[in-house]
């Protein structure tokens, strides 16, 4: 089930609960629907970082290093992109890729997402972890705002991870500063946040040691 239809499914469940229990508030309905996921997931790892810092790469390496634990990777932006693609007639599979298609829609998508978040800061977070999730650990690959972290911390045990890379290294990976994107809250809101642990993903550190350190922190948090 893709993220858009998962969100629609959860929304339908909420309407059913409201019909049966009209006195319930929205938050209470969401808690009832989410209880199973909350009890199954032992830890949610919240990853943030600048564009081209290597967040997705680090998440995949963390997942592999945590075997045999059951680990899945989800993104707040995946739910955003699924809904944006559906409402704008776009190709979701290309929006979640690293190609030029996503970049050509990035600015408009960011502005659309900001407008949605202004009205409901947790809108996309609620659709990120499937209600059917039975994994030990969920990695959120793209936290961008303090409100994202606040949402997950209020529902799960969490560990916050910052991925850092020197600007020159990011430029080698294709980063080019774009006004209206790289100076927006979606890229800057967590710059000063005090994360639990940092992965330095460039040649200044031994990458395997960086991953091992985070794995140690995760295992000791379970």
From TrEMBL:
Regions crossing the membrane: 16-45
GO cellular component: cytosol
Main subcellular location: cytoplasm
Keywords for this protein: ATP-binding, Cholesterol biosynthesis, Cholesterol metabolism, Cytoplasm, Kinase, Lipid biosynthesis, Lipid metabolism, Membrane, Nucleotide-binding, Steroid biosynthesis, Steroid metabolism, Sterol biosynthesis, Sterol metabolism, Transferase, Transmembrane, Transmembrane helix
GO terms of biological process kind: cholesterol biosynthetic process; isopentenyl diphosphate biosynthetic process, mevalonate pathway
Subcellular location: Cytoplasm, Cytosol
Pathway: Isoprenoid biosynthesis; isopentenyl diphosphate biosynthesis via mevalonate pathway; isopentenyl diphosphate from (R)-mevalonate: step 2/3
UniProt keyword Oxidoreductase present: no
Name used for this protein in its record: Phosphomevalonate kinase
Source organism phylogeny: Eukaryota, Metazoa, Ecdysozoa, Nematoda, Chromadorea
């Amino acid at each position: 089930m893709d993220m858009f239809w998962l969100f629609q499914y959860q929304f339908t469940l909420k309407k059913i609960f409201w019909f049966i229990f009209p006195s319930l508030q929205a938050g209470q309905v969401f808690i009832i629907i989410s209880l199973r996921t909350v009890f199954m997931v032992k830890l949610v790892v919240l990853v943030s970082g600048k564009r081209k810092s290597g967040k997705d790469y680090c998440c995949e390496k963390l997942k592999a290093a945590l075997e045999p634990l059951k680990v899945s990777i989800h993104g707040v932006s995946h739910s955003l992109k699924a809904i944006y693609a559906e409402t704008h007639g776009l190709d979701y599979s290309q929006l979640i890729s690293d190609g030029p298609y996503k970049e050509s829609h990035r600015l408009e998508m960011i502005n659309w997402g900001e407008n949605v978040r202004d009205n409901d800061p947790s809108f996309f977070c609620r659709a990120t972890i499937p209600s059917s999730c039975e994994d030990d650990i969920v990695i959120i690959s793209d936290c961008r705002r303090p409100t994202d972290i606040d949402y997950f911390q209020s529902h799960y045990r969490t560990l916050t991870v910052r991925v850092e890379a020197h600007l020159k290294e990011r430029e080698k990976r294709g980063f080019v500063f774009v006004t209206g994107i790289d100076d927006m809250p979606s890229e800057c809101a967590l710059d000063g946040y005090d994360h639990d642990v940092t992965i330095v993903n460039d040649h200044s550190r031994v990458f395997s040691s960086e991953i091992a350190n985070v794995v140690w922190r995760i295992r000791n948090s379970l």
